[in-house]
Amino acid sequence: MIKACVIGHPIKHSKSPKIHSYWFGKNKLNGEYHRFDVKPEELEEKVQWLKSEDFKGFNVTIPHKEAMIELCDIVDDTAEKIGAVNTVLIKDNKLIGFNTDAYGFTKNIKAVHKNFSFKQKTVLVLGAGGASKAVLYGLIDRGIEKIYLTNRTKKKATAIAKQFGKKITVVNWKDKEDVLHEINLLVNTTSLGMEGQKPLEISLDTLSKEAIVNDIVYSPLMTPLLTEAKTHGNPYVTGIGMLLYQAQPAFKLWTNILPEVDEGLIKRMMT
Ligand code: ATR
Fold first, then answer.
1. Mean pLDDT value across residues 6-10
2. How far is CA 73 from each of CA 32, 77, 85, 90, 93, rounded to the nearest angstrom?
3. What is the reported pLDDT for 270?
4. Residue 48 CA neighbour count, 13 Å, CB half
5. What is the percent of the chain where pLDDT is above 90?
6. Does 65 qualify as catalytic in the annotation?
7. Per-residue pLDDT reduced to its tens digit, 21-56
8. 154 Cβ contact list (under 8 Å, min separation 6)
9. CA-based torsion, 22, 27, 30, 31: positive or negative
10. How many angstroms separate the alpha carbon of residue 174 from the centre of ligand 1?
11. pLDDT digits (tens, 9 = 90+) for 142-191
């Protein structure tokens, strides 16, 4: 029996159990995927418990992704650079931390636009939180040429730019529309547009019709930004794929099988 789980707080909205239990079934594996609500002060103890119960590994979500780095025995380079662990493999009683969010982000864009290459492209990334770092890592890893980064709180964007290097140019939040005419890709990593949050207010009038618009928010699937992109005639990529593709390498780490993101899974996520 392969046991895995997701830990976070709150956790009841997590879609990870739906994804991994689908793959256990599809690949005819005897596996169980649980979800545990774990408060920050309970994290260390819970992680020890997962080890003692022979869990093969687990996913980590808000608010534990940063704290998990300290609890791992080994952290891979990607997770180290992003400063967050979202997947753990338990092997020989050791905790090995990974971050599969950057992979999930780039794979999602490539899954929808097969011929799209990140090389020689210019992107505008909105937001400078945890998710933004994973997106920036993915973009740089795939050879993006230039990144404009903007955030309501500018100093967070400036700090990230310092960490991630010369490809990033920080733009004032109020001036973000000024660079739209230059970009091939627009990515929203802020929480604006999420259910219960304010919409992202941006005019896409000067955006080239070929530019791809991606929102990493997936609830709702069609965010106000994506609706605006569609109206404007731009190709767009919804956020659900990033969630599905970040789960792929996690499942592989625990089972040695790279599972498929297929129509059955996508349908299951919509219900
Ligand atoms: P995540 O891990 O999902 O990235 P986060 O680290 O809390 O979450 O980051 C949230 C992002 O949404 C930040 O870029 C945040 O901007 P600030 O750094 O200025 O807080 C952005 N965000 C949230 N609410 C916003 C709002 N009302 N207007 C603009 N940006 C907002």
1. 96
2. 24, 13, 12, 10, 10
3. 84
4. 4
5. 99
6. yes
7. 999 999 999 999 999 999 999 999 999 999 999 999
8. 170, 172, 173
9. negative
10. 15
11. 999 999 999 999 999 999 999 999 999 999 999 999 999 999 999 999 99
What is d(CA 192, CA 201) in angstroms, rounded to the nearest whole number? 9
Residue owning the nearest CA to atom 14 of ligand 1: 127
Ligand 1 centroid to Cα of residue 130, in Å, is: 9
Compute the 3-state secondary structure of the chain and give helix, strand, coil in percent, each to the nearest 5: 40, 20, 35
Measured in Å, residue 127 CA sits from the centre of ligand 1 at 6
Cα of 25 from ligand 1 centre, angstroms: 36
Residue nearest (by alpha carbon) to ligand 1 atom 6: 129
With a Cβ cut-off of 6 Å, ligand 1 is lined by 127-132, 151-153, 156, 189-192, 198
Cα–Cα distance, 150 to 102 (Å, whole number): 19
Any idea what the Cα angle at residue 163 is, between residues 161 and 165, rounded to 5°?
60
pLDDT digits (tens, 9 = 90+) for 206-226: 999 999 999 999 999 999 999
The ligand 1 atom nearest the CA atom of 216: 3
Query: Which residue in the list 15, 26, 65, 155 is annotated as catalytic?
Result: 65
How many C-beta atoms lie closer than 10 Å to residue 229's C-beta? 24
Give the per-residue pLDDT at 233: 97
pLDDT for 238 beyond 90: yes
Give the mean pLDDT of 114-137.
Answer: 97
How many angstroms does the Cα of residue 153 sit away from the middle of ligand 1?
Answer: 8
* Residue of 13, 190, 194 to mutate, ligand 1, most atoms within 8 A of C-beta: 190
pTM score over 0.90: yes
The closest alpha carbon to 128, from 200, 189, 171, 169, belongs to 189
Residue nearest to atom 3 of ligand 1 (CA): 131
CA–CA distance, 88 with 55 (Å, rounded to integer): 10
